[in-house]
Amino acid sequence: MVNTLFALKSLKKQEIVLAGAKNDDWLVIQKELAFAVGKPVPSGFLVRAGSTAMRDGAPIKKRNRAERDRLVRDGVLVPDENPALFRFRMDHEFSSRSLAAGIVIDGNSNGDPWKENSAATLAFFDRPAALKRLDVESAMDAYDSYRQSGKDDAIFGAFGEPRQYWVRSTRKRPNRIYPSKPIVGFLRGKTQLNGGWGQRADAAAQLYNAGYIIVDGDDVPVTPPTRYEHLICDADRIRLCARNYYVEPARENGAVDVAIRAGDLGREMGLHDRNPAICSALGSTEFQRCAQVPPPTHTQPNPSSSTVFTYQLVSAKGLTAMTSAPATTFPTPTNLILYGPPGTGKTYITAWEAVRLCLGDDVAEAMRDNRDTLMVEYRRLAGEGRIEFVTFHQSMAYEDFVEGRQPMTGADDDEGASSSGFRLETVPGIFRRIAKRAETGLGKTAMSNRMAVDGRRIFKMSVGFSRDAGDQQFFEEVIEGGYTLLDWEHIDWSDPKYENVEEILKTCQEQGRFKGPVTLQSGQVSITDAFRNRLKIGDIIIVSKGNKLIRAIGEVIGNYEYQQRPEGDYNHRRAVRWLWHDAAGVPTTEIYDSNFTMRSLYELKKERLNIPALERYMNSDVKEADAEREAFVLIIDEINRANISKVFGELITLLEPDKRLGQPNAIKVHLPYSGDEFGVPANLHIIGTMNTADRSIALLDTALRRRFTFRELMPDVAELRQALAARKLDAENLDGIDLCKLLQTINERIEYFFDREHQIGHAYFTGCSTRADVEDVMRHKIIPLLSEYFYEDWSKVAAVLGDGDGTNGAHFLESKSLPVPAGFTDDELGGDKRRWSVKAGFDFSDFAA
């Protein structure tokens, strides 16, 4: 009771602070949730203590943010009980009326929002201070005492028996609901009070705005009318309730951490189909500030009713508050573009970089000079789905790279179905597929203790029908319940005699509800036998979504059970430990070599499964603090050939290292076709290549250039020597030809006549073993490339090759003077015209070893 009296006195003291100084000079702003009172003074404009200001107003451009931030630093503005607001801790004088308005609404203002409103002014000075959780819980303690002993009857008894609007306590009590009017009346010292929502001072409204859940007499949440602007809503309301009903009670009990499941919070608040909004609120920095918690870890998928956010409250020793460091750390993401002239080994270097990022520097360094070993490892990682390769081209679009709508014929759940029409379905592009894959990357603990498929059989199973209206709710039921369900016959197969499939057949023939002949091959027999008998504890089931997606993977942990469901179907049950689930689904090709068939349950052949990818999904739900997850790499060859802005879209922002998931400034966006929330994992690295002979780096999109590191690869005779030495050949004497001198000489001349970005790469010659190979490269690769560079100006091609006019002592090209056609003179045609041709045999004497 002492605590109760203290709380009551504390509230009265807060109310007294706001009293006084009432006169007709006061002006009011009531915009969105902000409510401020101010008046002109000789030196500017005064805003009264207790006024509130928006944290984030409507305009995109915040003209007065610098001044607002200064007021926060100086302690003039402090966080309000409502996380969407700041509160003026003291009177503050602004230099102008418009500046004061701009701070209050967090936007641009010329001062017009300030209006005369005597009723609102009076309400401001008379309004009570916001209720606090501990005060409300103390009032509930007092009400319990009143029920037992009659204490404080003067206040509690004045309200009579409650009729509507109860409030749910945040603590575990024998009876968790209390009438709202007596609780607020006790705190305010009033015996008359409106109990509803209509005014800010009404009992239910005060408790609702304090982050309490208003319920009816059966503890069912009551939703207020949307027309009342003085009630908080959406993310602000979710954050306050999560803080009051989860974080603060956990702190009181000395818990090290607290876990909030999105579906549980939504059910307690009476929010239906609001999981994306709940997950967004729980993962926001505003909630971290409101509840004084560090960034959380969370399970996948996100958003989902099954997403669990876990917040650290104290350190492992239970003594020190946790810092705001991210709960999961990743190595800095690599965004790298290798650029240079053609033939400088860019594609090969991308393979080495990809292997290095996946396996580490030490492992990759040992393969640097062993191409065969490197490529074996590269292909293994690509087969596991950790490396993807894509080539950009002029027709590449956002719909190919991120996601798009594609026409589909037939029905997704009907194998081989034909249809006269088609439907549009959202299909993930290569970037979204590997990003989803990267989210399943394993940490060190999961990799060392990973669950393997060895000794287990793998089954595909359908759970519900993906196109049914209630499918999502049904799917969530089995995930949350920890089991899988089968339909077919409504017969209890628990009797041990049904271990024999012949008994199942006999009973189906006698009691079955399906018409027609029944055999061992009939679905109600064979699938029931598979579900009851062949599916063993420890086996893995892969749950399909249609025939093209998978949405869950689980381990069977229980024997067959028959449990009647109220709906009357799906009564056959097996307990399952769900290892991974994603309601949206991922393509079956992530783990299998084709689409599934429509059969409800059947065993998958392991030789058709991508076992490493499957095991990664099976172990992906293992959460580890400070874990470096497996790296994934997307290689984009010829990245400059596509319209970068068109292909990347909003990914331009998400690619920045500090905007990746798990990083301090992580950002997610809603994708335009699917509407899904999407972010780029920090363990996804991107390596691009660009040929500067096609397009200069100076012409690249500025936004792309800022987000990538650029590494130039130029022709390198040292690399040429090393490549030939690996095959026991001498680059400075290959059948009498000094390839190093040949390459250097040609490139010096190209740079003189054209520029450095159009040089010839050393990779053109690394595969040469004989003089004939060198001649073949010159004839079919180098000379045609030079011809393209100089737009068929063969005199410049000859100059680069050292052949002058192509007459005396030409090495590669020769020319003949063309006779002047009859009827023309040399002067009319602009001088000597020559016919150029490639010589039948080349002379490498200038480049002799």
Summarize the structure.
With 849 residues, the protein is of the alpha+beta class.
What's the assembly state of these chains?
single chain
| Proportion of beta-strand residues | 15-25%
Number of helices: 29
Largest sheet: 7 strands, mixed
Per DSSP E runs of 2 or more residues, the count of β-strands stands at 31
Cα-atom radius of gyration = 37 Å
Explained architecture:
The protein is an alpha+beta fold. The strands form 9 sheets. Strands 18, 19, 20, 21, 22, 23 and 24 form a 7-stranded mixed sheet that branches. Helix 9 crosses helix 12 (285-291). Mean pLDDT is 82; it is low at 1-23, 315-330 and 412-419.
Supply the key terms:
849 residues, alpha+beta, seven-stranded mixed β-sheet, 31 strands, 33% helix, flat
Q: Strands, helices and their partners?
A:
Layout: H1 2-17, E1 27-31, E2 34-41, E3 44-47, E4 52-54, H2 65-73, E5 77-79, E6 85-88, E7 92-94, H3 97-105, H4 118-126, H5 133-149, H6 153-156, E8 166-168, E9 177-179, H7 180-188, H8 203-209, E10 214-215, H9 234-252, E11 257-261, H10 262-269, H11 275-282, H12 285-291, E12 297-298, E13 308-312, E14 335-340, H13 346-359, H14 361-365, H15 371-383, E15 387-391, H16 398-401, E16 403-409, E17 422-428, H17 430-438, H18 444-448, E18 458-462, H19 471-481, E19 483-486, H20 501-511, H21 523-534, E20 540-545, E21 549-556, E22 561-562, E23 572-587, E24 601-603, H22 611-619, E25 632-637, H23 644-648, H24 651-654, E26 669-670, E27 677-678, E28 684-691, H25 702-707, E29 709-712, H26 717-725, H27 739-753, H28 771-789, H29 794-801, E30 813-817, E31 834-838
Parallel strand pairs: 14-28, 14-29, 15-25, 18-20, 25-28
Antiparallel strand pairs: 1-2, 2-3, 3-7, 4-6, 5-6, 8-9, 8-10, 11-13, 12-13, 16-17, 18-24, 19-23, 20-21, 21-23, 22-23, 26-27, 30-31
